[in-house]
Design goal:
Helices cover 29% and strands 22% of the residues. The structure holds iron/sulfur cluster (2 copies). The site of one iron/sulfur cluster (SF4) has 13 residues, from helix 9.
Amino acid sequence: MEKRLIKKDALAGIARKMAGDFTVWAPLKKEDNVLFAPMGSDDEPFFAYLNSKNAPKNIFFPHTETMMKYTRTPQGMVFSSEVNKADQSVLFGVRPCDAHSFVVLDKLFDQEKYKDQYYIAKRLNTTVISLACVQPPYDTCFCTSVDGQPVSPEGADILLTDIGGDYLVEFVTEKGEKLAGYFGDTKADEKADAKKTEAAAKAREAIKAKIPAHEVKPILDKNFDHPFWDTIHRKCLACGTCTYLCPTCHCFDISDEVVGADGVRLRSWDSCMFPLFTKETSGHNPRPSQKERWRQRAMHKFKYYIDMFDTIGCVGCGRCVMYCPVNIDIRKIVDDISKL
Ligand code: SF4
Ligand code: SF4
């Protein structure tokens, strides 16, 4: 793996240079939030953030995307697919937990049997540049409990690690190496490697929140009807914040919008926390209350995803803990399940 060094203050310039050549999604300050958004020529990327409010999954799986368009003509219906219309893009400065989420999402959207061409086209056309977390984390971060690390190349094509005055730049994949020309030509030496190892150990130590994520699946396997599920959901407002901010949640709905002879088929995010999500046309709802919906959320992350893909469906970003308006904490739920 090739490694280089760049001065820390060179990073924004590199992102700006790339933005002249591709669509660059970068962390941008928008009022009180840091959000990943396409960088315009006047935008200043903000790399000193801890984690963005929105998970950057929307780059591969947008809130709403057009799947196809159609028109009714006298000769019949004419369809045009929107598959493979992804621009060449760079996702610049994403945190390792969010890069890990792409590996989790790939297992669903890019299976051997089922391939989601909309997601795959964007994944293939996007280079992911991760920015390792070497600064003190939020106390809601728990990546180390769910197979992540604050300094990790997982899900990244390029990994940047702050080692003092410089960033160590590691080209993790061939796709990453294709952008090597933007990162100067200062080769990294063994000293830089040693500094990175030290920074990674410190960063790992700094993640204090731990959850028994690997212990709960056998308990969940046997406790679908446990009275515990009656206890966790009562204050849930069904607002969906936890699922919309979560980097691994991926429920969607498909709808058609038709005006006159023209129509579009849209795919839009949905949430298992919404009562309407499972409501059937007959009026029957197999998940009639927030109890069944919360059980689904916990089961999906810590049992069903492991059953299907041998992977925990949570990357420990802590967004759902930080932003739930009634302070429901998935870490406590997992801890309580481990004691059933
Ligand atoms: S963010 Fe909190 S209140 Fe809103 S749906 Fe999730 S658990 Fe319920
Ligand atoms: S469940 Fe919560 S902590 Fe886990 S990845 Fe989703 S938002 Fe982050």
